[in-house]
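Board notes (copied after class):
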Amino acid sequence: MNWLLMIVGAAVGAPLRYLADRRIQASHDTVFPWGTFAVNVSACLVLGLVTGAVAAGAASSQVQLLVGTGLCGALSTYSTFSYETLRLAQDGARFFAAVNVTASVVAGLGAAFVGASLAQAFWG
């Protein structure tokens, strides 16, 4: 059953990542990878919320497998983040590469903290 939960979550997360990334990136005329940034930070927020809910006893470990491992695992993409950062640096957009790394780490950690804090406020 655990495998099925992760598969179902990933089956939703992967296309959601692709569609959200394409839509967000298409609405910005810049080399900065806004689509990847947005899906990664969103996944961090959701994962923080789910993890906090599980820790508070408001969600089960099955929800964590479905949403945290499956959905968020497929929604976020470290490989694309890495590739896009490398591409920015190689194309001479080193400032954007540095901003991507810094903003992704800070915003991702911040979003996870906000998600966990919201879970604590709701269910703690």
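Comment from the instructor: The mean pLDDT is 97. The chain has five helices and no strands.
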